[in-house]
Amino acid sequence: MLSHDELHARLFLLHAAEPPAPALHHYVAVHGPVDAVAQIRHGTAPAAVLSEVTRPDARIDDDLRALDSGTARMVTPEDDDWPLGRLTGLASFGVPLALWVRGSGSLAELTNLAVTVTGARASTEYGNTVAGDVSYELARAGVTVLSGGSLGVDEAAHRGALAANGKTIVVLANGVDRTHPHQHARLYQAVVEQGGLLVSEYPIGTRPTRIRFHARCRLLAALTAATLIVEAGQRSGALAVARAAGELGRRVYGVPGPIHSVTSKGVNELLRTGVATVASSVEHINYQEGVR
């Protein structure tokens, strides 16, 4: 369990730098959060670390109130609930300094057997149906379904898992106390009530931004052994998840779509270039092996 000083230091660090912050993470891993914060505040930390610190006067009052009220909890590398094996490989991408979690489930246990299902926001009926059906079957097999909570394929993936009475995790690009998109308030509540989790590396109250959506991609890729892309245009953020998963040594799968469909051009290219393997059913997805 974190000491008072360690807790306050971790909370400060989450505010002080915009993820990913690989130099800061390495410095904290070597020196510990309390000493790291002291050196940052004195300006004696290495230049690479100080360059990542953009909010040296950050306050943590809202975070402490959220912890005290039970609105959310924080999982750190010192906790048994930290999915250590999965996140260790993120060293070059920037390991999160801590993770905010809403829900009573264990993050480590839920990601032990898990698949990321993501894709286009402006999805077609085909994409939504495939994402929902695959996620339903994964959940029936006891697999946790991860996605980003966005409209389109992400929403279909979460709802598919819930329909099977399974567990699903929403990885957010904002604080876990915020609902984005706003239409998903009931969906997120159902995720938590059914034993799933809302997860974010961003402090309480943080709003989503383009850079945060991009940074989130590495977590969607890292927290599972396999990623399935269901529809993705040529500029879709889902392609960044696929690239990160491949670089992390995770398995990457794609659902082929019509060659004239704009929402399938990106995933079809992943398949053409060999970045992804074709998957048209759950039987094609290997989620049993790989990293913890």
TrEMBL record:
Domain Smf/DprA SLOG: 74-285
Name assigned to this protein: Rossmann fold nucleotide-binding protein Smf
One Pfam family matching this protein: DNA_processg_A
Similarity comment: Belongs to the DprA/Smf family.
Gene3D superfamilies named in the record: 3.40.50.450
PANTHER family reported for this sequence: PROTEIN SMF (PTHR43022)
Entries under SUPFAM superfamilies matching the protein: MCP/YpsA-like
InterPro entries in alphabetical order: DprA, DrpA_SLOG
